[in-house]
Amino acid sequence: MDADLYVPVDGWLHRTDPRVKFLISIVMLVLCLVWRNWAFILGILILEHVMLATDHVPAERIGWVWKILAVLIVFIVVLWPVFDQSGTHVLWQWGWLRLTQENLLMAAVMGLRIPALGFACFITLFTTSQTKLVRGFTSLGMPYKAGLTLATALRYIPVFFSIFQSVSDAQRARGLDLSGKVNAAGKKRNVFVRLVDRFKSYLPIIIAVLIRAYKMSQSVGWAMESRGLNLNRNGAKRTYRVNLTMRIADWIILAITVAATAVSVWLMTWLS
């Protein structure tokens, strides 16, 4: 597991100001939620893949997104016609189940909308480091303490997961059974009892991780206090290690995004 979604490559999206990427993601999210035209959503999905490919994001990362979204997409496409019985152009009917042209079209729209929404978020997450991500939020008005909390959480997610894996491996080496498939007599358990026993077997690991987390939180708190966190002085101005500056390329991408959004809204209104 790689808790940091950032892909360290040198691409045009990586060099773009994070605030511009925030705008691009928000625009794509809103348009995909508002628009119900399958061709438009498919166009956004293709555009997202082109943006990631031209930014040199590895195909393995793009395939990983499709892998985690595949089950959800299949469920939505299959179950949407079952729960949505609207439409007048009936293509097939069996009892209460009706497949119409309208509900199948909406199933296709929803099946395309899920990956389009997902990739709209991953455009920013794949191409923005944690430092610039948090700095972009704080430059837009997020309180400094909230940004610091977010940065600390993102920083220590992979650390705590690594600790969890290390403790689990150590307990397995000492004979701890984490699967919960068989009892002490060697007989197989049913699914419910297996889940309960598996949760109980993870309790010592969770406790060890929590103790380690408490010790680390003390060290982090002392380090922040020694660096003057919450130190109030008259006329003092907070400085940042990472400063964001809009380049000419950023202004061009921003202008293209605004223009494309205006054209999309006009097209949506005209077709309606």
TrEMBL record:
The keyword Transmembrane applies. It is a multi-pass membrane protein. Keywords: Cell membrane, Membrane, Transmembrane, Transmembrane helix. This is Energy-coupling factor transporter transmembrane component T. It is found in: Membrane. The chain crosses the membrane at residues 22-44, 64-83, 104-126, 146-164, 248-271. Pfam families: CbiQ.
